[in-house]
From TrEMBL:
Pfam families: Pkinase. GO terms for biological process: vesicle-mediated transport. It comes from Jaculus jaculus (Lesser Egyptian jerboa). Residues 601-617 have a biased composition (Pro residues). This is N-terminal kinase-like protein. GO terms for molecular function: ATP binding; protein kinase activity. It is found in: Cytoplasm, Cytoskeleton, Microtubule organizing center, Centrosome; Endoplasmic reticulum-Golgi intermediate compartment; Golgi apparatus, cis-Golgi network. It comes from the Eukaryota.
Length: 810
């Protein structure tokens, strides 16, 4: 019937590539590229066409087919499938390239490194040791044509056509009949008497010497060329000379050859070989050994071949994480190897592991993921970020470890563009509100302000209107000086998101209050910001037609492009604060906030103690800082008369400003000791409240998250409130007011809550609101006192004066 005549080659599950065959080595086989029909995976196919009159070669090919099918070893060519018909033989193996072709390709790209060659030769010698010592087989064909290289750069021993048993079973060695292969035969084989004493491995070790010579010097022209080592490394010359010695009895066993090369100073004693040997035995290693190995692996990956990292190191890293409980130590080498992958490969191999890692409760893994997020964020799509990553990341905002809270805040710079409206405008803002108001770490409050300024352009228009002004206003009242600087720069970085009304009624009053700040760095930035906003207002006043153009971004939808305009601001701010916070945390990893403060200068008796100042890094010289500021102020003064060039200016390093706090404090106090009382009163007013984690989680509302910190302790007796000063009246107090010439208090008028975030109460942020409350409280006390005096006077007038000794009757 017809089905008995079907072509078996057509039904074979593998097909040959239409491309011409690769440079096949000498021998009966032709090497083709191929692929599996079902999956499309790439393979190599060795094809032998049966020819009439070549029965001897056909028997050799069939013997090789059988040997390759039964021998299994990591360093021997891997058999996948085969086909044997009357017309041809097909042997399917892993995808490989002939060693000669591989070395030629690498030479064109700069040549293989010595460590790569050392590991390749190590694999071939190990395969020979397996054949000779474990299987009692003689390969009988060790040469360049019998070695192949897989996609990971691993060398595989093939060419099993002329193999025979060392015990004499099955007859002697088969005849090759190919001159290109017979030139590698040792000289003792030409001795017809057979009296030369030799070991079973002697011939193969001679051929191994020929292979080493060809690897370093190219094709072997004749056997006499073996006397000159040529380019063979000096560390290998001694062992090489033993291989090509005339006396076959002294040629070493493959196992001893490996031992000699692995000795200290030997050719195969290097980091690359050690790494490969460890990876081969990683399944039986102790957990402590694995941890140490992965910690040191990252340093070595830069010197390893790219193919080796992609196809050998990466699978082992993924396996170690999936089944070996390797933990966070695999992250650094994993992301380093990920750089060699294409976008598609990254999605398939790395992203599933990263998503799984984010659900881990291991703090070390979480913080390393956050620190290295920029390496994989571009490969994450929005649904994955919002549903599988962000819900786990937000737990870091509530972590008791300051380092994790800080890294979580900084990671929002990368996650914000991919967050949906609910996560960005509601969930994230809730956590930012709590951090800025209640976190006990000044640098973390500062980072929150910086991050909010950077992601402001991604927020919706309604959220921007409710959040930005109030949040930056709060930052300008923070006792931590860099936070106040960040608040000023936050206004600057988002200047295009405010209406002219907001600039005039909300922002400038806040900035003007900072012109008398105790820290010079804060005052300098405040003056620059004021000049910029005034220039903007003045330009609109001169030409009202510019109003629409200036306010075009105020009511616009979230615009990621705008966020890029402030990239330089966000970059230096996060970098500066990050290093500062890391120094603080490393210096006092478990200390309470009070323990991380430097001693303060003595305070006069009767005044509350000032808020502690965190320890900064090594401060800059004040002269250097002032020179920078003078240059910047000069540039700003020149630009302010023409146009608003806020985005084009270099705002310096927040870390430098932080480091200069103590120096500027000393200079300021030396110039004006009288401002010490006001500084003490300011610090007392803005003392941050302790974080109440349980109440925040239970209530979870904006009102609780953004409430003003706990009210300060009452001042000592004799200390006057700010509301008791005569800010603009005709009467003057006996004692001169140091700010009388600087500040003019506006009349207290009821006005709408301009800083309200929807239904939330933000009145606590406005200084005028606080003054109004204090004024109302004082008036109520005065009215109550007058009422009591009036009642007493009425009682006295009704009853008349009491006589001495008279008894009072009700």
């Amino acid at each position: 019937m017809w089905f008995f005549a079907r072509d078996p080659v057509r039904d074979f599950p593998f097909e040959l590539s239409p491309e011409p065959p690769e440079g096949s080595p000498p021998g009966p086989w032709v090497l083709h590229r191929g692929r599996k029909k079902a999956t499309g995976s790439v393979v190599s196919i060795f094809v032998y066409d049966v020819k009439p009159g070549a029965e001897e070669q056909t028997q050799v090919a069939k013997a090789a087919f059988k040997r390759l099918k039964t021998l299994r070893h990591p360093n021997i060519l891997s058999y996948i499938d085969g086909l044997e018909t009357e017309k041809c033989l097909h042997v399917v193996t892993e995808a490989v390239t002939p060693l000669g072709t591989y070395l030629k390709t690498r030479a064109e790209a700069g040549g293989p490194k010595e460590q790569e060659l050392s590991w390749g030769l190590h694999q071939i010698v190990k395969a020979l040791s397996f054949l000779v010592n474990d299987c009692s087989l003689i390969h009988n064909n060790v040469c360049m044509a019998a070695v192949f290289v897989d996609r990971a750069g691993e060398w595989k021993l093939g060419g099993l056509d002329y193999m025979f048993s060392a015990q004499g079973n099955g007859g002697g060695p088969p005849r090759k009949g190919i001159p290109e292969l017979e030139q590698y035969d040792p000289p003792e084989l030409s001795d017809s008497s057979g009296r030369a004493l030799r070991e079973k491995w002697s011939a193969d070790m001679w051929r191994l010497g020929c292979l080493i010579w060809e690897v370093f010097n190219g094709p072997l022209p004749r056997a006499a060329a073996l006397r000159n080592p040529g380019k063979i490394p000096k560390s290998l010359v001694t062992q090489y000379c033993e291989l090509v010695g005339a006396n076959p009895k002294v040629r070493p066993n493959p196992a001893r050859f490996l031992q000699n090369c692995r000795a200290p100073g030997g050719f195969m004693n290097n980091r690359f070989v050690e790494t490969n040997l460890f990876l081969e035995e990683i399944q039986i290693k102790e957990p402590a050994e694995k941890q140490k190995f992965f910690q040191e692996l990252s340093k070595s990956l830069d010197s390893f071949p790219e193919d080796f990292c992609r196809h050998k190191v990466l699978p082992q890293l993924l396996t170690a994480f999936e089944f070996g409980n390797a933990g966070a130590v695999v992250l650094t080498p994993l992301f380093k190897v990920g750089k060699f992958l294409s976008a598609e490969e990254y999605q398939q191999k790395i992203i599933p592991v990263v998503v799984k890692m984010f659900s881990s409760t291991d703090r070390a893994m979480r913080i390393r993921l956050l620190q290295q997020m920029e390496q994989f964020i571009q490969y994450l799509d929005e649904p994955t970020v919002n549903t599988q990553i962000f819900p786990h990341v937000v737990h870091g905002f509530l972590d008791t470890n300051p380092a994790i809270r800080e890294q979580t805040v900084k990671s929002m710079l990368l996650l914000a563009p991919k967050l949906n409206e609910a996560n960005l405008n509601v969930e994230l803002m809730k956590h930012f509100a709590r951090l800025q108001a209640k976190d006990d770490q000044g640098p973390i409050r500062c980072n929150t302000t910086v991050c909010l300024g950077k992601i402001g352009s991604y927020l919706s228009a309604s959220t921007r209107h409710r959040v930005l002004t109030s949040a930056f206003s709060r930052a300008t009242k923070d006792p931590f000086a860099p936070s106040r600087v960040a608040g000023v720069l936050g206004f600057a970085a988002t200047h295009n998101l405010y209406s002219m009304n907001d600039c005039a009624h909300k922002i400038l009053p806040v900035l003007c209050g900072l012109t008398v700040d105790p820290e010079k760095s804060v005052r300098d930035q405040a003056f620059r910001a004021i000049r910029s906003f005034l220039s903007k207002l003045e330009s609109v006043s001169e030409d009202p037609t510019q109003l629409a153009e200036v306010e075009k971004d105020v009511h616009a939808a979230s615009s990621p492009g705008t966020g890029g305009a402030a990239a330089s601001w966000a970059g230096w701010a996060v970098t500066g604060v990050s290093s500062l916070t890391s120094k603080l945390i490393r210096a006092h990893p478990i200390a309470t906030p009070a323990e991380t403060n430097v001693p303060q200068r003595p305070v006069p008796e009767g005044h509350p103690a000032p808020a502690p100042t965190p320890v900064p890094a090594t401060p800059l010289a004040s002269s250097h800082w002032e020179t920078q500021e003078e240059e910047k102020d000069t540039a700003t003064a020149e630009d302010s008369t023409t146009a608003d060039r806020w985005d084009d200016e270099d705002w310096g390093s927040l870390e430098q400003e932080t480091e200069s706090v103590l120096v500027q404090q000393d200079d300021w106090s030396a110039r004006d000791q009288g401002s010490q009382d006001e500084r003490v009163r300011q610090n007392s007013d803005h003392k941050p409240a302790e974080s109440d984690w349980s109440s925040w989680e239970a209530e979870g509302s904006w009102d609780q998250g953004w409430q003003e910190p706990s009210s300060p302790e009452p001042p000592p007796e004799g200390t006057r409130l700010a509301s008791e000063y005569n800010w603009g009246g005709a009467e003057h107090s006996d004692k001169g007011d140091p700010f009388a010439a600087l500040s003019v208090r506006p009349s207290a008028q009821p006005r709408p809550d301009l800083d309200s975030w929807g239904e939330d109460n933000w009145e606590g942020l406005e200084p005028e609101s606080r003054q109004t409350k204090a004024e109302l409280a004082r008036k109520k006390r005065e009215e109550r006192r007058r009422e009591m005096e009036a009642k007493r006077a009425e009682k006295k007038a009704a009853k008349g004066p009491m006589k001495l000794g008279a008894r009072k009757l009700d």
